[in-house]
Amino acid sequence: MAKVTQKEKIRAYLEEGGTINPMMALNLFGCFRLSDVIFKIRKETSYEYIETNLIENRNGNKYAEYKKA
Description:
Blueprint: H1 6-15, E1 19-20, H2 22-29, H3 34-45, E2 50-56, E3 62-68
Antiparallel strand pairs: 1-3, 2-3
Helix pairs in contact: 1-3
């Protein structure tokens, strides 16, 4: 049986309408480099529908949040 990759899990999550950020990716899928996975999804599948939003937390730090556009 073929193993389901992090990329496939994250792509399915986005296709179901989920929003994901790096902390969620780590907790849900064990993914430490979400931006790399998003890059690969966009490159391999020509998905133009993944929207990136920069979120600023209370400390002024920014992180990316991805969702299906």
